[in-house]
Amino acid sequence: MLGVTDLPTYLAGLVLIVLLPGPNSLYVLSVAARRGVRSGYTAAAGVWCGDTVLMVLSAAGVASLLQANDLLFGIVKFVGAGYLTWLAIGMLRAAWSMWRARHERSADGPDDASAADPARGGERPFRRAFVISLLNPKAILFMIAFFVQFVDPAYAYPALSFAVLGGCLQVASMLYLSVLIFTGTHLAAAFRRRKRLSAGATSAAGALFLGFAVKLSLSSA
Questions:
Q1: CA 128 – CA 56 distance, rounded (Å)
Q2: Quick one: which of 32, 45, 81, 153 could link to 216 by a disulfide (CB 3.0–4.6 Å)?
Q3: Distance CA 22, CA 209 (A)
Q4: DSSP category for residue 149
Q5: Taking the model in full, what pTM does it have?
Q6: How large is the average pLDDT for residues 100-118?
Q7: Distance separating alpha carbons of residues 42 and 47, to the nearest angstrom
């Protein structure tokens, strides 16, 4: 089928891959919980665009270049780890502000929501999600290592095969992130009522992002 071999096996593996937690899905869930469905989908769009760029780069052979060049891989790796660390620090600072303000009450609902999310005004969900997706060389290497197993080398149009495989990945990602977004909106009401819960969740998200940064910095090509 359009140069794709063993499509059922690919789809089965794809489900497992999409369900694995990572910085992209965690960030989308965090945005949806703090800012609602619309902002959640804005962040998800950043993920989808970033993944599309990675798939194009993988099909173009950039993954092989990163794998062969230790210096280039190291630069991309540590830039990505540094960006995740910066995001984690921002989340932890926001959580600390929530803890300090947890006993304060506001009569105005919108002001209270703003206080619960100090970074809300300057946050750009699409841009952040897009950068998180791009600054992950392991994702590029994984895509090329996974996709190439299901592309028929004898097929005359391998780019079309990559497009089919990538389209399946994007559909699965859309469905999964949609579930996270609507789950996050249910959490949002609880977060707005309970600043301690909101601070704890933000702290946990910050800690997970630090873990992703450490994992990325220790990875190898």
A1: 20
A2: 81
A3: 9
A4: G
A5: 0.70
A6: 49
A7: 9
Name the residue among 142, 141, 159, 129 with its Cα closest to residue 50.
Answer: 129
Collapsing DSSP to helix, strand or coil, 120 comes out as: coil
DSSP letters, 56-119, are HHHHTTHHHHHHH-HHHHHHHHHHHHHHHHHHHHHHHHHHHHHHHTTT---SSHHHHHHHH-TT
* pLDDT tens-digit map of 164-203: 888 888 999 999 999 989 887 776 665 555 666 666 666 7
Q: What is the predicted pLDDT for the residue at 194?
A: 60
Longest dimension (CA), the chain: 68
- Name residue 110's amino acid: P
Crossing angle of helices 158-193 and 37-59, in 10° steps, is 150
Sign of CA dihedral 22, 25, 29, 32: positive
pLDDT at position 48 is 92
Q: Has residue 19 got a pLDDT over 60?
A: yes
195-200 contacts: CB < 8 A, separation 24 or more? 195/98, 195/99, 195/101, 195/102, 195/116, 196/98, 196/99, 196/102, 198/98, 198/116, 199/95, 199/96, 199/98, 199/99, 199/102, 200/95
Asked if pLDDT for residue 118 goes beyond 90, the answer is no
